[in-house]
Amino acid sequence: MGEKTVLITGASNGIGFLTAVKCAEKGFRVIATMRNIDKAQKLDVQIKDKAARDRIIIRQLDVTDETSIASFKTWLSKGERVDILINNAGMAVGGFVEELPLDAYRQQLETNFFGLVAVTQAVLPLMRRQGAGKILNISSVSGVIGFPGLSPYAASKHAVEGFTESLRLEVVPFGIDVALIEPGSFQTDIWTTGTTIPEQAARNNSPYKRYMERMKEKMAASRPNYEDPVHIADQLVRFSDKEKLSALRYPVGKGVRTMLLFKKLVPWKLWERMVHKQLKISSMKEE
User: Fold this and answer.
1) pLDDT at 122
2) Which residues are known to be catalytic?
3) Residue 7 has pLDDT above 50, yes or no
4) pLDDT tens per residue, range 20-31
5) Where do the domains of the chain lie, and which CATH numbers do they carry?
6) Which residue of 55, 109, 130, 225 shows the fewest CB atoms closer than 10 Å?
7) Which of 221, 218, 138, 151 is nearest to 182 (CA)?
8) Which is it for the CA torsion 48, 52, 54, 60, positive or negative?
9) What beta strand segments (E) does the chain contain?
């Protein structure tokens, strides 16, 4: 079959960028897609091995734009082979439900869920005809656990979880493996430049202002303990190189498996109390 071809969305930075680099260095042929191809210059800087750099094909792809998706599908149909799809493109919207406009939820779902579905639909006919393929959907611990102030992001990742579970049942008979990768907290841009907080949810007179401040303090205090995203990139290369993915879900990161198990086992009332204790939240009732 020759070298395997890996298609990665959101490859301009973070996990997608690192995975593209490591897959190319491993010997994979990489189709690195990104909304802004000007950012592809980072790949030239990062990859010193010319042979590895030559294995990367840069393609413009905005997963939220129907025209961009259609153009990409046309390009794929001209004889491209895709052995592994890594659906990585994503962003995060923060804020509290009462203050978030519906458009914020739509924006979040367009990227993290509908974009992922659109790219998957573009690749599935190729994999089905090949009789083989692998789809790795980047979910999150937020796809299993909801956190205050992140309901759009959590909703999008919960949607990815349900979609992927159904997809796997549909395509395994065609020789296509599908899996969820569930990272914990990693030092990526999604929690800094990649996070959007709409103006309505950031006003100074918000009744949730103190709540949001506590959350930001907690995230800032925890950030030095976040893992290096190179670890998840290494995992994705290993998953891509595996002959078979026997499991549906792969939690990735320090303490993630323990947290997911704990969430499953403890009563909701206790879990709720623990979350609020971590954030030093008690009553927020207006006096």
Assistant:
1) 97
2) 153
3) yes
4) 999 999 999 999
5) 5-208+227-255 (3.40.50.720)
6) 225
7) 138
8) negative
9) 5-8, 29-34, 56-60, 84-87, 92-93, 133-138, 176-183, 195-196, 249-252
